Amino acid sequence: MTRRTRRAVLVLVALTTVASLAACSSSSSSDDDKVAAFEMRPVLKVSGSVACSQPQPKNQPTEAVSVCIGANQKVDLGPAAIVTDDVAKVAVRRGTGAHKKETVVRVTLDEDGRKALETATAGLVGKAKPQNQIAILVDGRLIAAPEIASAVANGQVELGGLNGKAAAKTLASQIQAGLDAG
Fold this sequence. Notes:
By secondary structure, the chain is an alpha+beta fold. It has four helices and nine strands; from the N terminus they run H-H-E-E-E-E-E-E-H-E-E-E-H. It has a single domain (3-39, 83-133, 140-181), classed as Gyrase A, domain 2 (2-Layer Sandwich), CATH 3.30.1360.
């Protein structure tokens, strides 16, 4: 792995506090059986002190969408750059970089997904926050929104901050179910 690629991976896995806030969203025990859609969307705007409630309506990947963080913060997202069909493999493993001491979900993209991620992240480089962030959603829930400092060319995304190995396994199973259903 080159230094540039390693740095891009590290930037992508350096998840913001959005991950821990999103993990607090309500979920029921039946969530384990749901087929989850995986999406990566550019962040357009973050609005605080706005009434916002879950769940958000299901939208097409080509449409802009808004998601909630808690009850008072709304995040507006652009059309999806990456969708479930772009995912080649999902695995639970030990993290790297900022997440080296925790269990993460590694999402590996196929060639089309890798190219789409590189293009999407290259377009975010140099922009001011929040327009330099890419939101990672699973079944409409915001998992993370890392800031992008350089294009991510290796097609791998690590999702950390998931409250332990059991949560990582559940998330990976949901994403895998979406792959198997497609």
